Amino acid sequence: MGGHHAISGAAAWLALTGSATIGDRALGAGVLDLTGPEVLAGTVVATGAALLPDIDHPSATIARSAGAVSRLASSAISSATGHRGATHTLLAVAVFTALGAVVAGLGWSFRVPVVGPVQIGAVVVVAVLCAFAVRALKLVSGALRPWLIGIGAGLLVGVAAPATSVWLPAAIGLGALVHLLGDLVTTDGIPFPTWPLVLKPSERSSSPLWQADGDVAVPILGNAGSAREWALCAVLSLYVAVAAVATILP
């Protein structure tokens, strides 16, 4: 359900950082005081980052996004950790966020005529995550088009929202965290929050909420792909469309 993870990442970012309004109603909390281009750039990044934990599943959208390279990487991770293993933990979210912070802080840049210096790391990260998002949301078909759109988005972000030190790692971390929350509310759940230190219930006390292998779940959506999940994501999609347009128009 890659598309559902992607749209939830976008919705979470817009809800927390967006500041657009309709009439007197705010559509987001504006917690980071970002410009419109930065909010939109972060939306793209959070959408793609919400797919990162599923790199442990060879059939996931992200595993099929870069041909043989991503498939081999996904197969190796899956063999080592299994699905909803190490990459579905708070530790993994921290690692993804830290990597984003490193990229944002490198300062590698190239000078574009008229525009000036553009950060290479930010362009690459945005391009890759945008390609993931486009594939997950099935906005275009084919293997090449998502990457062309991703590269275009990366260059556009490099020009329109060059100050990436705050919003880039924040968007990556939020997207990955929202993925975990999405899996938490399904039947299978996610690893125990303190992974790799896993606490397991006794045989008598194990339940759908705290499973015998230590996984935890709050299965209000039921199985992945349930009608409840589709209904929730329909609402989130409508919110994302309205909030994004309201952010673009000013």
Could you give a quick summary of the protein structure above?
By secondary structure, this protein is mainly alpha-helical. It contains 8 helices and 4 strands.
Q: If you had to describe this structure to a student in words, what would you say it looks like?
A:
With 250 residues, this protein is mainly alpha-helical. The chain has one domain. It is built from eight helices and four strands, in the order αββαααββαααα. It has helices at 2-17, 36-49, 67-81, 90-106, 120-136, 145-160, 167-184, 227-248; strands at residues 21-22, 25-26, 109-112, 116-119. The strands form two sheets. A two-stranded antiparallel sheet has the order 1-2. A hairpin with a 2-residue loop joins β1 (21-22) and β2 (25-26). α2 packs across α7 (167-184).
